[in-house]
Design brief:
Layout lengths: L3 H4 L8 E2 L2 E2 L1 H25 L5 H15 L4
Antiparallel strand pairs: 1-2
Helix pairs in contact: 2-3
């Protein structure tokens, strides 16, 4: 359940168009709901030194983008 009553109105995601369920909207809502966990795992992976080279650079860039920091 991703209702505003439960979690607060942090974002609004359109999950229907013309009163019809939108699969893209549902997928976007699911991705937004999972984003904090995905970010936490990525940060942990970087902090444990499990990445190197281009993968490490990409991970740091993604973390910066997700947190609003400069990479």
């Amino acid at each position: 359940d991703i209702s505003a009553e439960k979690w607060g109105a942090l974002a609004v995601v359109v999950v229907s168009v013309d009163s019809k369920p939108s699969e893209e909207g549902r997928a976007n809502a699911s991705l937004i709901a999972a984003a904090p966990d995905l970010l936490a795992i990525l940060v942990e992976t970087v902090n444990k030194g499990l990445l190197a080279g281009a993968m490490l650079r990409d991970a740091r860039s993604i973390i910066a983008k997700a947190t609003g920091e400069k990479s």
